[in-house]
Write a structure and sequence with these properties.
The structure holds two protein chains of two kinds. By secondary structure, chain A is an alpha/beta fold. Chain A has 15 helices and 19 strands. Classes of the chains: A alpha/beta, B mainly alpha.
Amino acid sequence: MSNFIDLGVMVGRRRLLRGAALGAAGLAGAALIGCGEDDDDPTPAATAGGGGGGSTASATPTPAASDIKRGGTLLVDSGEPNPNVLLFGFNVRNRPIQHTVWEQLIGLTPDFQIDNRLAETFELNADSSALHVVLREGVTFHDGRPLTADDVAYSVDFFSNAESSGQLKGPLSQGIAEVKVVDDRTIDFTFNGPRPALVDMFGLTRIVDRNTAAQIPDMANLVGTGPFKFVSYTPDQGYRLERNENYWREGIPYLDAIEGKVYADDAARELALRSGELHWADAMPNAIVASLQNDSSVRVRSRGKAGMEHMGLVTTKPPFDDVRVRRAVMLAIDRQRLSDEWAEGIVAGTALPWPVESPAYNEDQDFPVGVSYDPDAAAALLAEAGVAGTQITLQVGSGEDAVSLAQYVQDDLNAVGLQTELVILEPSVALAQLRSREIQSNAWIGVHGFANYAHPGSMMNAAQQYQVPNASGYESEAYSALLDRLQAVQLGSAEFDAGVREFNQLLLDEPWIVGLVASEEFRIMNSVVQGDEGGNLSVVKSSFAEWWLDA
Amino acid sequence: MGRYILRRLIESIPVVILASLLVFSLLHFIPGDPASILAGQDATDEEVQAIRESLGLNRPILTQLTDWWLGLLQADLGDSFRTGRPVIEMIRINALPTLELAVVSYSITLLLGIFFGVMAGVKVRSAWDWFVSLSTIFFIGIPNFVFGILLLWAVAFSLGWLPIGGRVAVWDDPVAGLKTLALPALTLGTTQAAVLARYTRTAVSQVTQQQYVTTARAKGLTERVVVMRHVLKNSLIPTITLSGLQVASILTGSVVIERVFSRPGLGRVVVDSVQARDIPTIQGVLLVLVAVFILVNLVADLLYGVVDPRIRLEA
């Protein structure tokens, strides 16, 4: 088996927008039209975030039956799950359990099409201000109880609940005005105006069992409708999931079980992957990913760019209250060196958060076309602003990679005349400052995701760097108005194109967040693992359900 | 003897209290907020505050300390911030793997350390002595985790003789259990054995120059009898002192080794808990480790009397 790096599924914007346009045209003027019967035919229908879209029941393509070997236990390691935010935190540690025990109404295909999961019908009205959902028939929770519309209503409330934190809380609680359970299988949502970005959030919202949801942090009784049933969890040792024999998709999953291991040491994890003692691992360090690229016993796959490693600038105090100084920083960063040296060549330098396949991405605005490395111009701007030689502080949480990235940035800034002092903080202290939007230094090193969803409004909702207020203190009436416009804009529309271009240009012209390199996760699997389709983090499909072991 | 043990146990109570106070103070004064870590980047200040409240971190420090001590008297170490489970349960689950590792590592330490130390000590400046000296320098010089990774690479990955990580309980499957134990125990044990061998060599070489050893040889006793009966026993006091301390080294070494070999255990729990600022778990585990260390030192003191009757423990 040859090794390869599949750097995400590169879907052209034109194809994406064509899909959106077709979806909109087909349903224009027709609000909430019911769609199709349940079938197993993979029929991607509507584009997420595109108004007037509906979809019929679909499933992912099934490999030829003769190729598939059933049975076996998949050994995975993505770190110790965090029971406190098992369903609220979208991090790699929680992912294997999140993606196997629970399911969502819909998933998204790599080209941002809606892929129905628990929903048989999932239809937005023409202006994306209402949603009509009909549940798939015959779905049961792991304890045998049938899934009903009440469970969906409960789940949306569960994630919108004031007691729970997480990225879903804001968008769901602010976006949904009314939830109406029509019957056991039908539920209607009314939004607070046009909210096309909410489709992404429904793609993340797991449907939980209302009888056991409160017990989730105990990690003793996790009940969902997913392809695998939770069996056990021992802190610091791992967990076990077993096939759900009553899963609604016939013949799925192929594996008997999934066993979560926790390899605390990266070198040991690497050896275990190579030897086959471990089948799959997530979020490996750049250096190990780079070294594994040439190993034929494993496959390395990127989840695609999810956001960016960045330098945040505090715009409310000198010297970054002067836009010329912020522009100088944008020009002073040698992103190619960051990519080659800091990231070991596995991720690219970037100035914009969006992945290439995002409809919000414009190549002419990103590094290296729209933004270049120009230390002379940066030094000139600093001189013009009268701050050449000024000392600034750059804070960073005490992670090895983050500090190393900060040192590269420090070097670049020193070179153009901003004398940069690093302030290394305990990570939770750095986090608290970000959360309270009260950064003590002049700038900070951070990372955000959520740029890889279908609608740019999803990132605006979830990443505080772009909200108002934000930790940079950057705000203006025009910017707030732009954010409001972007929340409601339909994918594929002229307003969409203009809006995201305006946002990107604002980020480059008045930088408060300076992009450094792409934030990208890599998953590594032993060559015996089959069925992984790759794809971006935004593709919240039922991972593992269609995986099998060729051993 | 009984009175001596009782007295030592009573004397150890203030040590445990002082240790717990030190651990408690350190954990509460180092930077880092457990509630903030648990809440994650996207939580609001109100949510962090709510978590802090639910964890009891809003109470005055003295109240927290008093509550913890009161809980301690009822064998209640609180609940883990990180997992939500009782700390006692976390310790129960993870103590056994660490105990397995410590026992096997310590056995390796004693066997190799005393054997090579004695052999080098009775044949000072021989080829054997040089071999032991050079090997011990290597094992003392190389960091535990580096040696562990080298062993992983060579024995587990390249040769495929042993598993790379994980743990199988020895009583569930003795062969598989010993296989998972072999490399971590060897890593921990050989490093400590090297230290013990050097101490033992020095002690043995000094004893062999004593007149009673010359007398024993003059009496025509075989070298084996001279060494076993006269040299070894009389050179064991420094060895016992050191080997008592080495239990602590093995327990602290397990912090790194359990991570390298992906074994569950108390050491790994400590590291994970420190990263998450899981204060109750760190306090509980460290308290257990302090108690173990006190007990081991008591055993070492008792052994002095067994090895050297001139030492009267009751005195």
